[in-house]
Design brief:
Length: 223
């Protein structure tokens, strides 16, 4: 439930998307500067749900998707990401990534963390584990370790990861956002009405926060 006076923001993202980590950092900068309190909720998205549960070799995956020429689109994008990351204090260690994981279980972990009020910490830890430390975030042991790091019960998380009880709920939520027209991430949805697509600047978010605050105030006022 949204707290009274808070701007509600949903971030639709996938942990293997570098733009999502970068975009989240820009959003955080805006939230710290904004005169309006913000309540962020993480929403799942899978850029490639066809990746098998055990993952696939990262280099082969990226080569098939972008090509291997020195001037390939990925190499240009990568240079931009690495430069932008330095400005916000995060690290993309693309050369060290071994596995392109299936992210369904990572999204399940964020879902459980949301219930304990630590979703932001869980998402941040997952981004860092994948992009900086190059862990396989599709691996149950890695996810359980991250769960413990953010304060969740590791025994319970390990048990849940080995069951399929809420997988359909996560997949259905992803499908809802696809049907709403979300085709790329990150997508920030303010008050269910205003969208910021991609890793846009803190200044852009601040402008939208002002508009969202007006919407939120109007919705709270009695008719």
């Amino acid at each position: 439930m949204n707290r009274p006076g808070h701007i509600r923001v949903d971030i639709v993202s996938d942990i293997v998307c570098p733009w999502c980590w970068l975009g989240h950092e820009y959003f955080n900068r805006a939230a710290l500067q904004s005169r309006h309190p913000v309540k962020l909720r993480w929403r799942p998205y899978m850029l490639d749900p066809g990746v098998p549960r055990e993952g696939v070799p990262y280099r082969d995956y990226m080569k098939a998707k972008f090509g291997d020429a020195p001037t390939s689109r990925w190499k240009v994008v990568r240079r931009h990401l690495e430069t932008a990351a330095q400005d916000v204090g995060i690290t993309f260690n693309f050369d060290g990534i071994i596995t392109r994981p299936n992210t369904l279980n990572a999204h399940r972990l964020i879902r459980w963390a949301e219930g304990q009020g630590v979703a932001d910490s869980a998402a941040q830890s997952l981004f860092e584990a994948f992009f900086k430390d190059n862990h396989d975030i599709g691996d149950t042991a890695v996810l359980t370790d991250i769960a413990g790091h953010v304060g969740l019960d590791t025994n319970l998380v390990n048990e849940l990861l080995n069951r399929e009880s809420d997988e359909e709920a996560v997949l259905e939520e992803i499908d809802v956002f696809r049907r709403l027209g979300v085709s790329g991430v990150p997508t920030f949805i303010y008050e269910g009405q205003l969208a910021v697509n991609g890793a846009q600047s803190a200044e852009t978010h601040l402008e939208v926060m002002e508009k969202a605050a007006s919407l939120s105030k109007t919705q709270r006022e009695p008719a």
